[in-house]
C-alpha cells in the first residue's frame, strides 16, 4: 500500500507528439482513482508511465517514498490488469496466477496458499487447471484479477479492464472490483473511457482531455461543479445541457431575450450556460419554452429531447409524470446553473 | 462443416485428373522405376541390365563410403537446422523490439530467400575463392589456411555456412510474424511479473513460438536433407574427390557421373523410406499436437 505522487510528469513521443502535458497529482494511500477521458486523451499513456511500460519524458513519479522513474516494471511493486486480460495462453489458470510469485522467489507452500486464497475469493476454484482458452471473458478477467491480487502489490493499475465484457457482466464486475478494492485497501488507478464506471467506482476522478488534466475531484464535485464545458459534456448521461447565452443588464439572457438568472458581478458578453437535465422542471409558468421532439422511455424515468431557444436541450422526467411532445414551459433552478466563458472555463 | 455434393460422379474425378496426373507422372512413375532399377545392375554403356536382387542394397550397407556420407548428412542436417533456426530466432527477437524501419529491415532480410540455391552456392564459391575471396582472406587473417574444394572440413564449413545463410531469412520471417502475432500486453504483463529478460524469453516467448518453431523444424530438416543439392553441387563442382557430400548429392554423383544407375536407384529408395518415416513422425506429432498447439 502506498501513496502515488506525480510531479509535472510529461510524455513526448519520439515523433514529437506530446501525449501528456506536465501533470501533477497526489493519490492517497488506499484511494481508488479513476482516469477518464475520450480516446487519445493520454489516460492510458499516463497509466503506462506509472506502470513503467512507457518512459517518462520529464517530471518525477513516486510510488510510496521511492522515485521510480527509472525502476523496472517488475520492481515497482505494482500489479496491472489489462483490457484484453493478457493471460499467458500456454499456462493453466494456476500457473498464470502463480507466475509473478514464482519469479519473486516466494516459497512453494506460500504460493499454493495464496493462489488458493485468491481462487476462492474470485470463485476460480474449479478452473485452476484449465487453460485461458477454455474460459469465458468474465472468468479470464477474474484470472487477471487473481494474478494481480496474489502479489499483494502497493498499487493496482487497471487499463480499461471491463471494455471487452458485455454490458451485464460489466456491471457485475464493476461492483466486484470495487468491493475487492475496498476489502484489500490497495491504492488503485483505473483507466476508462466510460463515465459511468468513473462515477460509480471512483473515490476521486481525474478527467483528462488532449493530454491535459481538466479537473480532479470526487464524483459528485465533478458532476455538479464541472470546471469546464468539456467536463460538463463528458460526464453524465445524458450530458449537461449547454446553451449559448449572453450577460447583459446584470442578467443571463438566452437568444430571444429570456432572462434566466442574475449574472455574477462585473461580467458581460457571451457566455455558455450549463444545466443538468434533472435540474430542469416542467412548469407552465416557467420563463423558458421547451419544444419537445422526442421522448425516450427508460422505465424509471423519461428523457425529453428537444430545443430551447433553438438549441438542443434535454430534461429528465420521473415516470409518474406524463407529457406530450410540443411546446412546454420549463423552469431552471438558478442555484444549479453553471456559467462558462467563451473558452469553456467556468466563470 | 458444410458438405458440398456433386450430382455427377464424373465431374469431381475430372477436376482431380490434372493434379493426380502430375503426381503420377512426376512422382509415382519415377518412384516405381527407381524401385525396379534398384534390383538391376546396368551396363555402363546402356546396352542392358542384369537382375541382381538385393545386391545393390547389400553393397550400400557394406560400403564404408556410403556410411561416411550418411554420417556427414546427419551432422550437416543437424548443424544447418539448428543454426538456421537459432540465428533466425535471435534476429527475430532483436528485430521485434525495433518498431521503426522494421519493414525495410524485414524486406532486406527476405531478399536472400529469393536467391536460388545454386546461385547461393556460387556466391559461396566467390566468397571463398582461393586467391581473392574475402572470406578466405578473413580466415587467413586468423591463421586459417582455407582451401575450398580440397580440404574436407573447409568445404563442409562453407557448405554449412552457405546453406544456413540461405535459410535464415525464411525462418526469420516466420519467427518474426509469430512474435508479432501475440498480443503486446502479454509481454507487458510478463514485464511486470518477471524482471529477468532471459526468464521472460524462456517462460513466455519461447513456448508461444513453439507451433511456429515446430513447423520450421520440419521444413528446415527437409531443406537441409534435400534442397541443399544446388549449394552442394556448386561448391564441390561435381568433383567429389575427398569432398563432403550429402546423400541426395551422392545419388546424383553415382547415377549420372558413375553411371551406376542400379546403386543410385537403391540409394533413392532408401531416401524415400527415410522421408516416409519422417513424414509419419510429423503426422504422429500432429496427432499429439495439443502439447504444442493452442489458440
TrEMBL record, chain A:
Stretches assigned to the ABC transporter domain:
4-235
**Which InterPro entries has this protein been placed in?**
AAA+_ATPase, ABC_transporter-like_ATP-bd, ABC_transporter-like_CS, ABC_transpr_MalK-like, ABC_transpr_MalK/UgpC-like, Mo/tungstate-bd_C_term_dom, NA-bd_OB-fold, OB_MalK-like
Alphabetical keyword list: ATP-binding, Cell inner membrane, Cell membrane, Membrane, Nucleotide-binding, Sugar transport, Translocase, Transport
Q: Which Pfam families match?
A: ABC_tran, OB_MalK
Q: Which CDD domains match?
A: ABC_MalK_N (cd03301)
Q: State the Gene3D superfamilies in the record.
A: 2.40.50.100, Nucleic acid-binding proteins (2.40.50.140), P-loop containing nucleotide triphosphate hydrolases (3.40.50.300)
Gene Ontology MF term list: ATP binding
Please give the PROSITE patterns that the UniProt record associates with this protein: ABC_TRANSPORTER_1 (PS00211), ABC_TRANSPORTER_2 (PS50893)
Its family remark reads: Belongs to the ABC transporter superfamily.
Name recorded for this polypeptide: Sn-glycerol-3-phosphate ABC transporter ATP-binding protein UgpC
Organism of origin: Thalassovita aquimarina
From TrEMBL, chain B:
Q: Which domain of life is it from?
A: Bacteria
Domain ABC transmembrane type-1 intervals: 74-282
Topology within the bilayer? Multi-pass membrane protein
- Enumerate the UniProt keywords alphabetically: Cell inner membrane, Cell membrane, Membrane, Transmembrane, Transmembrane helix, Transport
**PROSITE patterns, alphabetized:** ABC_TM1 (PS50928)
Where is the protein localized? Cell inner membrane; Cell membrane
The record, for SUPFAM superfamilies, names:
MetI-like (SSF161098)
Name a Pfam family for this protein.
Answer: BPD_transp_1
* Record InterPro entries: MetI-like, MetI-like_sf, UgpAE/MalFG_permease
Membrane-spanning parts: 12-31, 69-93, 105-128, 156-179, 200-226, 269-288
The record's PANTHER family line, in alphabetical order, gives: BLL4140 PROTEIN, SN-GLYCEROL-3-PHOSPHATE TRANSPORT SYSTEM PERMEASE PROTEIN UGPA
* Family designation: Belongs to the binding-protein-dependent transport system permease family.
Q: Give the quaternary structure.
A: The complex is composed of two ATP-binding proteins (UgpC), two transmembrane proteins (UgpA and UgpE) and a solute-binding protein (UgpB).
Question: What role does it play?
Answer: Part of the ABC transporter complex UgpBAEC involved in sn-glycerol-3-phosphate (G3P) import. Probably responsible for the translocation of the substrate across the membrane.
* Name of the protein described by the UniProt record: sn-glycerol-3-phosphate transport system permease protein UgpA
Q: Which organism is it from?
A: Thalassovita aquimarina
Amino acid at each position: 500500500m502506498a501513496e502515488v505522487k506525480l510531479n509535472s510528469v510529461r510524455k513526448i513521443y519520439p515523433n514529437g507528439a506530446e501525449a501528456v502535458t506536465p501533470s501533477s497529482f497526489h493519490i492517497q494511500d488506499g484511494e481508488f482513482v479513476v482516469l477518464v477521458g475520450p480516446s487519445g486523451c493520454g489516460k492510458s499513456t499516463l497509466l503506462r508511465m506509472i506502470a513503467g511500460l512507457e518512459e517518462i519524458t520529464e517530471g518525477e513519479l513516486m510510488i510510496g517514498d521511492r522515485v521510480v522513474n527509472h525502476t523496472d516494471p517488475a520492481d515497482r511493486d505494482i500489479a496491472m490488469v489489462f483490457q484484453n486480460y493478457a493471460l499467458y495462453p500456454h499456462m493453466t489458470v494456476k500457473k498464470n496466477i502463480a507466475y509473478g510469485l514464482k519469479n519473486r522467489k516466494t516459497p512453494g507452500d506460500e504460493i499454493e496458499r495464496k493462489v488458493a486464497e485468491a481462487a476462492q475469493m474470485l470463485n476460480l476454484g474449479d478452473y485452476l487447471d484449465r487453460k485461458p482458452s477454455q474460459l469465458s471473458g468474465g472468468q479470464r478477467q477474474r484470472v487477471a484479477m487473481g494474478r494481480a491480487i496474489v502479489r499483494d502489490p502497493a498499487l493496482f493499475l487497471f487499463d480499461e479492464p471491463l471494455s471487452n465484457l458485455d454490458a451485464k457482466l460489466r456491471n457485475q464486475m464493476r461492483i466486484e472490483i470495487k468491493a475487492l478494492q475496498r476489502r484489500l485497501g490497495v491504492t488503485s488507478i483505473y483507466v476508462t473511457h466510460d463515465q459511468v464506471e468513473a462515477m460509480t467506482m471512483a473515490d476521486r476522478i481525474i478527467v483528462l482531455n488532449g493530454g491535459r488534466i481538466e479537473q480532479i475531484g470526487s464524483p459528485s464535485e465533478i458532476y455538479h461543479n464541472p470546471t469546464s464545458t468539456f467536463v460538463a459534456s463528458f460526464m453524465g448521461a445524458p450530458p449537461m445541457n449547454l446553451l449559448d447565452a449572453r450577460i447583459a443588464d446584470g442578467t443571463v439572457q438566452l437568444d430571444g431575450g429570456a432572462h434566466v438568472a442574475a449574472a455574477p458581478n462585473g461580467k458581460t458578453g457571451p457566455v455558455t450556460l450549463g444545466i443538468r437535465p434533472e435540474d430542469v422542471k416542467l412548469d407552465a409558468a416557467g420563463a423558458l419554452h421547451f419544444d419537445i421532439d422526442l421522448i425516450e422511455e427508460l422505465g424509471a424515468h423519461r428523457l425529453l429531447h428537444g430545443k430551447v431557444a433553438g438549441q438542443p436541450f434535454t430534461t429528465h422526467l420521473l415516470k409518474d409524470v406524463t407529457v406530450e411532445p410540443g411546446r412546454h414551459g420549463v423552469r431552471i433552478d438558478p442555484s444549479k446553473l453553471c456559467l462558462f466563458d467563451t473558452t469553456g472555463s467556468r466563470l | 462443416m458444410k458438405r458440398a455434393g456433386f450430382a455427377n460422379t464424373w465431374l469431381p474425378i475430372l477436376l482431380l485428373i490434372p493434379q493426380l496426373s502430375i503426381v503420377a507422372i512426376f512422382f509415382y512413375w519415377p518412384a516405381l522405376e527407381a524401385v525396379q532399377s534398384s534390383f538391376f545392375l546396368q551396363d555402363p554403356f546402356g546396352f542392358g541390365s542384369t537382375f541382381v536382387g538385393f545386391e545393390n542394397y547389400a553393397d550400400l550397407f557394406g560400403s564404408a563410403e556410403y556410411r561416411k556420407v550418411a554420417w556427414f548428412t546427419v551432422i550437416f542436417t543437424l548443424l544447418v537446422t539448428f543454426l538456421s533456426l537459432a540465428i533466425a530466432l535471435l534476429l527475430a527477437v532483436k528485430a521485434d523490439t525495433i518498431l521503426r524501419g522494421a519493414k525495410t529491415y524485414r524486406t532486406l532480410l527476405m531478399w536472400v530467400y529469393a536467391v536460388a540455391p545454386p546461385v547461393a552456392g556460387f556466391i559461396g564459391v566467390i566468397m571463398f575463392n582461393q586467391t581473392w575471396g574475402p572470406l578466405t582472406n578473413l580466415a587467413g587473417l586468423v591463421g586459417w589456411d582455407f582451401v575450398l574444394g580440397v580440404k574436407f572440413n573447409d568445404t563442409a564449413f562453407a557448405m554449412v555456412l552457405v546453406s544456413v545463410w540461405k535459410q535464415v531469412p525464411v525462418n526469420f520471417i516466420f519467427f518474426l510474424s509469430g512474435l508479432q502475432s501475440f498480443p503486446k500486453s502479454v509481454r507487458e504483463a510478463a514485464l511486470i511479473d518477471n524482471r529477468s529478460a532471459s526468464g521472460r524469453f524462456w517462460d513466455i516467448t519461447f513456448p508461444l513460438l513453439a507451433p511456429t518453431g515446430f513447423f520450421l523444424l520440419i521444413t528446415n530438416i527437409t531443406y537441409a536433407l534435400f534442397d541443399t543439392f544446388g549449394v552442394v553441387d556448386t561448391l564441390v563442382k561435381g568433383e567429389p574427390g575427398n569432398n563432403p557430400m550429402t546423400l541426395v548429392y551422392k545419388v546424383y554423383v553415382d547415377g549420372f557421373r558413375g553411371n551406376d544407375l542400379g546403386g543410385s536407384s537403391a540409394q533413392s529408395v532408401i531416401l524415400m523410406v527415410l522421408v516416409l518415416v519422417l513424414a509419419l513422425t510429423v503426422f504422429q506429432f500432429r496427432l499429439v499436437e495439443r502439447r504444442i498447439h493452442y489458440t
